[in-house]
Write a structure and sequence with these properties.
The structure holds two protein chains of two kinds.
Chain A lengths: L4 H26 L28 E6 L2 E9 L2 E3 L6 E4 L2 E9 L4 E5 L5 E4 L5 E7 L4 E5 L12 E7 L12
Parallel strand pairs in A: 2-5, 4-10
Antiparallel strand pairs in A: 1-2, 2-3, 5-8, 6-7, 6-9, 9-10
Chain B lengths: L29 H4 L25 H26 L9
Classes of the chains: A alpha+beta, B mainly alpha.
């Protein structure tokens, strides 16, 4: 088959583009350390979260120097904690969120950032991020979860290290 | 009218009609070859132009595709390296 020389050029360009896409995503995973959220968080009984050692009292738990776990329950149409009171974490800390749902599928997105996961009933989604500067982040649900989905939001308060105290550990 | 053409001005030259020369190949209406501005569809159907495979030279298409490639490449670099990798709170574990 005879292929026109211009066609060879744009075939090569299209292949280069595909190889480039795969190469940059590979670089993101290997070089830049971007992690995918998987099923490592394990499973829970969504009907018995009040019997869970952590989800029965969701909030921030200190796990090491500048390392914290935050347990969050998403339910129609709020985050616990997060909606009625902000999730509090200290600045310059490494925080692992453990997010699950008590009813239907929700989203858990820290607005304007790459931190974003689904909240699935029976499944714990875990994601680790690093908070640097003290500031406030918004939270929102990005999976349609019911009639008040649009109102499901919350916030994360990154507290300066100097103002952080242990009473903020469990909200 | 050149002597080699036996097609009268205004007639449509067709291989089956008067446009057939002595060799049996279609002879274009030489007066109309350089005509410009005729109505689309009214061109003389007998005007046959043989193009070799690589004589077809759509350089405008090539330039258009090159521009698309540059736009797609630049948008990819911007979206991935600036917006995504440069974004706040990247999931690291």
């Amino acid at each position: 088959m005879e292929i026109h020389r211009y066609e060879k050029i744009w075939l090569a360009g299209a292949l280069l583009l595909i190889v480039g896409f795969i190469a940059t995503v590979s670089y993101g995973a290997v070089g830049a350390g971007i992690e995918m959220i998987n099923d490592e968080g394990g499973q829970v009984d969504s009907a018995a979260l009040d019997e869970h050692p952590k989800f029965s009292e969701p909030g921030t738990y200190k796990t090491g120097p500048n390392e914290y776990d935050v347990y969050v329950i998403a339910k129609q149409f709020l985050y616990e904690p997060g909606t009625s009171e902000p999730i509090r974490v200290p600045a310059n800390s490494r925080v692992t969120f453990h997010v699950t749902s008590a009813d239907v599928i929700h989203g858990y997105e820290i607005v304007g950032t790459n931190a974003n996961t689904m909240a699935v009933p029976g499944q714990v989604s875990t994601m680790t991020v690093e908070f640097n500067e003290p500031r406030k982040y918004g939270l929102l649900c990005n999976e349609y979860c019911g009639s008040a989905h649009h109102a499901m939001e919350g916030s994360i308060q990154v507290v300066p290290q100097s103002e952080w105290n242990e009473t903020m550990v469990v909200n | 009218m050149p002597a080699e053409s036996n097609t009268e001005t205004g007639e449509v030259a067709t291989p089956a009609g008067d446009g057939t020369g002595e060799t049996g190949t279609p002879v274009p209406d030489t007066e109309s070859i350089d005509d410009e501005g005729f109505v689309i569809g009214s061109g003389r159907s007998g005007v046959v132009r043989q193009l070799g495979h690589d004589d077809f030279d759509p350089v405008g298409t090539l330039v258009l595709i090159a521009i698309y490639m540059v736009i797609v490449g630049a948008m990819w670099i911007f979206m991935y390296f600036v917006e995504f990798l440069g974004g706040d709170l990247t999931v690291i574990g």
